[in-house]
Amino acid sequence: MLVSPALNPALREARFDGDTPLDPSGARAARTAAPHLPAADRYAAGASGRCRATARELGLGAPDDLQVAPAGWQLGRWSGLRLDEVAAAEPEAVAAWASDPGAAPHGGESLGELLDRVGAWLDAGAGDGGSGPPARGVVRLLAVVEPAVVRAAVTHALTLPPAAFWRLDTGPLTLTTLTGRPGRWNLATGRPLAPAGAARGEG
């Protein structure tokens, strides 16, 4: 079960990996969403401040109690910049990045590398550390991860072409559920964790 982080200024401004803290409305929305979380056996969060803060506001425990989930897309020198800024300054680089899964003009991670990294985590049991199958045969993991990680996980799980990544949207504080096993995943995506207004941080 993958939960996208609450809104923060970077997400509001469409900045590449702009890891600013949650703003008050984002923190409030996460607290509102907390009672709507499904039960899980294990909890994890990405390394970014907004994922960790969202996990804290959702009541998932102290950072040391959480497993480590995949980090967001590593975008090199574009990190922290807005998409429109980069597109204006480097239109050819942005076009290559958006059309070629192997392109990494920012000096960071290509789309193909992101898909491979997240896919390996998913197929390894979503970070179960090689502990073997649980006694019940099923384990429920809930992880707070960046939207790009959610999109990469869905692309990998459904064996979609890399270009499908760009056609997937992940809103703040939404739940995407993957059930099954490597090679046979089922998807339930985009269920809000709170009423629409609260999920957007309104009110």
Automatic annotation (TrEMBL):
| Pfam families from the UniProt entry | His_Phos_1
* Ranges where the record places region Disordered: 1-35
Name of this protein:
Phosphoglycerate mutase
Origin organism is Streptomyces wadayamensis
